[in-house]
Amino acid sequence: MPVARDIALIFLSLEAFVVALVPLAIFAGLAYGVYWLKLRIRTGLQIAQGYAQEVYEYVERASKAVAEPFIRVHETTQMVTTMVNKLVSRRKA
Fold first, then answer.
1. How many whole angstroms separate alpha carbon 42 and alpha carbon 92?
2. Number of domains observed in the structure of the chain
3. What digits encode the pLDDT tens for the residues 35-91?
């Protein structure tokens, strides 16, 4: 009887090992795929990063060119309003 128990325990352990081995093999394959892909596209990613930086600089310049006149007008109106409020408040005192 103890021998049958030991054999059953071995088969149960083997089943758990096989079930645990499947996700481990999947993760190992994914890790290898990422490593392989990283080696193959490193230069391509550096080129793409350079283009992305160039596009970012164009967008920054364009947004400054568009927003700067509005900011200047708002700044000037606020400055004039503040000066008028200061003058009016001094007259009342």
1. 71
2. 1
3. 999 888 888 888 999 999 999 999 999 999 999 999 999 999 999 999 999 988 877
In Å, how far are 14, 52, 70, 71, 92 from 84, measured between CA atoms?
Answer: 88, 47, 21, 20, 13
Distance CA 64, CA 35 (A): 41
Report the sign of the C-alpha dihedral through residues 13, 15, 17, 20, in that order.
Answer: negative
Structural domain range at position 79: 1-93
DSSP state of 1: -
Amino acid occupying residue 6: D
Q: How far apart are CA 91 and CA 14, in angstroms?
A: 95
Round to whole Å and give the CA distance between 42 and 54.
Answer: 19
Give the distance between the most distant pair of CA atoms in the chain: 110
